[in-house]
Amino acid sequence: MKVGEAARLTGLTVKTLHHYEERGLAGPAERTEAGHRLYGEEELARLIFIARAKRLGLSLEEISELLEY
Question: Percentage of the chain with pLDDT > 90?
């Protein structure tokens, strides 16, 4: 799925998804020939986890540590 659909399904903004990619927290599984980001089920689940953790008050640093396990 493209970044806009991933944003809609997770409740995050496209800008936030790009920020998480820059921080190394989550990113697209692949890109199209035109460079569009494509997210799969695994990436979507990771983004949902990050969104829930943020709502619980965890910082991005804390979330990053959790994702390393």
Answer: 91
Angstrom distance (rounded) from CA 14 to CA 63:
19
Q: How many structural domains does the chain have?
A: 1
Do residues 14 and 4 lie in contact, with contact meaning Cβ atoms separated by under 8 Å?
Answer: yes
d(CA 58, CA 39): 24
pTM: 0.88
Helix (H, G, I), strand (E, B) or coil at 38: strand
Structure tokens at 26: 């989550």
CATH code at 51? 1.10.1660.10
**For position 27, what pLDDT does the model report?**
83
For residue 36, the SS3 value is coil
